[in-house]
Known about the structure:
This protein is mostly helical. The protein contains four helices and no strands. It has a domain at 8-87. The chain is rod-shaped and about 150 Å long. The chain starts with 14 loop residues before the first helix and ends with a helix. Belongs to the TEX13 family. Keywords: Coiled coil.
Amino acid sequence: MALNPEDPSGGFQHDTVMAFINEKMARHVKGPEFYLENTSLSWAEVEDKLRGILEDSELPSEAKEACAWGCLALGLRFAHKQRQLHTCRVQWLHNFCKLHKSAAQTLASNLRELTEQKEMERKEAAYHLRLTQAKLEEVQKERDLLRWKLFRAELEFAREQERVEEGPGLATVSGAGTERAGEEEDVAEAATTTATTGGAAGGGGRQKDAEGRGRI
Length: 216
């Protein structure tokens, strides 16, 4: 018996169908042989071998018919294998999609965390930048203030140097002016004294002349 009811890879679900096909293949010895020898071949290879058998004029019709039933059983076997492969592929694709979805969710979560982390780093960097700018402005103000103080100190120092250099000349001129003013005051005082004395003497002479005229 070519078809085994306990073989799940045969593709048949009903024992009655398998028994009928086994009966048809058993009408000639080449029927079961054709089925058992070609279970590992592809459908294209099985079909090519069946064509060769059908075109062989030396084979009896019973052998050709038995091989044809064997080819039918092999076709169902191959269809069952293809269905199993298709089911496995669908399951694999389903698992792959689930894995892809999980990976996409993980990637999205990681991307969200990375975005939040970068945003925090950006805000922190902006804060430190503003703080640095404020400190820089403060340092610049202190620098400008120190420059102004240094400029005033240099200006005061230059003025002090000028006063020190011009000091002796100014003292000499001031002393000479004081002496000249003193001399002028002495001359004026002497002139005043002389004028006073002369006036007094003139008044006495006029009084004596008047007295003399009275006596006459």
